[in-house]
Amino acid sequence: MKLISPFFILFFSYPLFSQLEINLDIVFEATFDQNYIPLEEFTNLTEGLGAWDYFFDEEIVLTYPIIMPGFEDRPINLLEIGAFSGIYLGYSNWPDDPYELDLEIFPIDEFILVSPLYDPMNSDQGDILLYESEELLIVEYRNVGIYQEMELGDGNLFSRLNFQIEINKVELCVRFKYGPSNLSQGMQDFFFQGLFTGLLFGWFYEESVGGSWIEDYEHLYGLVSGFPNDPEIVTVLESRDNPFEGIIPIINFYPEEGTIYQFCFDEPSSTEAVHNNKNNWQIYPSPVSDYLHITFPESFEAQGKNYQIQLMDVYGKLVLEQSIAEHQYISVQTLPSGIYFAQLKAQNSFDIQRVVISR
After folding, report:
1. Are 113 and 146 in contact (CB under 8 A)?
2. Spatial separation of the C-alpha atoms in residues 46 and 82, rounded to whole Å
3. Of 240 and 66, which is predicted with more confidence?
4. Residues 127-137: tens digit of each pLDDT
């Protein structure tokens, strides 16, 4: 499904890079003995999901896109989900934009098939649920069965799983929340063989040049390994020129109830809370609650008399505009919390930076 983002349309003149670059770290944290809280507000996707297949049965356009640092002009606005233990999020505006973004999330293993076992004759069926707000996106797998168990023992589906995928769009953190589970000995033995658990963020490039197709990609993996009480993350950055050829990290257990795995995307320089760009202007802090400060180099006064700062929401709607003098600030107190983009306009050029308003 190809979507044309209104944000991309607004900035269609923003130059495409000959090659994008992922400049992100993944910070991992595991906590245990946390209360597992099932969703109370949700959209039930159960009836729309087929059983036991790897097809994306549901394609959902997000109301509030996910904005990744360094890829602000390509909002991730599509969720694809099926009857297996992972979700796919992406951005695509091909062929107008030859770059696509992927965010793949797999809290058990992307090849484990799960199903709510939707059947009026089944008294022990489950649900696959969705919740979205401006800040959060949550997919909950409630009391789902596991396809692989049909090939174990007598073929009865004794096991049931409860877990959530939570994405905080402001913090840019993905959390796997594991709830109560009932695993047969056969399923425990099956999981002991290894589970590919974690996430992937990346881009894929495809364009026809002179009658030949050119393809390129870059993927950043965050994969969990280690022991139940001491898991760790292995990060892998691979590309077409540098494919990953090592041993794939796995875990050989299903996390216990109350376990939370957290993966946060972090810009290496983000701890300074100051963003720089090609015109050497600085905008800070981010997150911000009241006043956003903008500073310029000493040469600004001579060459920048016509500068204006514009703030836009994730849909490209202009929400604030102001002329800028040297060492200026603007008030964002009237704007609600969320993700915005600050655009500095000067004659025939402009720069864009991501800003988070949080209170």
Report:
1. yes
2. 10
3. 66
4. 899 999 999 99
- Is pLDDT larger for residue 330 or for residue 37? 37
Q: Would you say 59 and 117 are in contact if contact means Cβ atoms under 8 Å apart?
A: no
H-type alpha helices, the chain: 6-10, 185-192, 300-303
Q: What kind of fold does domain 270-357 have according to CATH?
A: Immunoglobulin-like (2.60.40)
Q: Where does CATH 2.60.40.3080 sit in the chain?
A: 270-357
Burial class (CB in 10 A: 0-12, 13-18, 19+), 293: middle
H helix intervals, 111-176: none
Give per-residue pLDDT as tens, 284-316: 787 788 888 887 665 555 454 567 788 877 666
pTM for the structure as a whole:
0.72
Buried b (16+ CB within 10 A) or exposed e, 25-48: ebebebeeeeeeeebeebeebbee
State how far the Cα of 205 lies from the Cα of 195, in Å rounded to an integer: 29
Query: Which three-class secondary structure state does DSSP give residue 314?
Result: coil
Secondary structure E strands in 147-290: 161-168, 173-178, 198-209, 212-227, 230-239, 260-266, 275-276, 282-284
